[in-house]
Amino acid sequence: MNIQQQLLSTLPVLKVTDSLDKAIAFFADTTYSHIAVTDKKKFLGLLSVNDIACFEANKKVETYRYELETFSVDPKTSWLDVLEIFARNEANIIPVVKETGTVVGYYDLTDIVSVFIATPFFTEPGGILVVSKGIKDYSFSEIAQIVESNNTKLLGAFITNSQNDLIEITIKINSANLNEVIQSFRRYNYTIILGSNDDQFMEDLKERSDYLDKYLNV
């Protein structure tokens, strides 16, 4: 899935020689969490809205270069990896940086989540399963085989939790009749956390994500 059409190229990028006043004005006018900084037109890092409150407004960005965060993506980064970087850095904006170090724009969290919401995982009718198994014992190929052995199609699967050597996986299939699929997963020693039609589950998935609730009105 190509997300480059979501690239925002109109938002500012600071130079390391700029005054912090520019960053303060940017954060005052937007709800973004970060702004990119360059040195000699090469990406250097990001100023955070949380950090800048502790900085002196009349100083140059250069003064705080060692306080900059350094996450970014390149134009070829997949949308799933982009979402992971958003979550890992508690950001709602990510700079897109070419191999040359040039900042070509930003991805906005709202835009990337809209791409996710538009995937068949959310849009196609079907059923939802949440299963768990030992982190060393599961495989996505096995999950696909279990689903397809019951004459159903796998619409998507992703890891939703991982702790204490257990992995939790949310699965979407194209059938609301989950009984046979559930029994097959049990035969393969998966624990069934949830098995339901997707309507209420998808609402819960959208509404209860602490991270998305922080930045979006889903």
Describe, in plain words, how this protein is organized in 3D.
There is one protein chain. With 218 residues, this protein is an alpha+beta fold. 33% of the residues lie in helices and 27% in strands. The protein contains 9 helices and 9 strands. The strands form 3 sheets. Strands 7-8-6-9 form a 4-stranded antiparallel beta sheet, sandwiched between helices. A 3-stranded mixed beta sheet has the order 1-2-3. It has a two-stranded antiparallel sheet with strand order 4-5. Strand 2 and strand 3 form a beta hairpin. Helix 3 packs across helix 4. It starts with 13 loop residues before the first strand and ends with a helix.
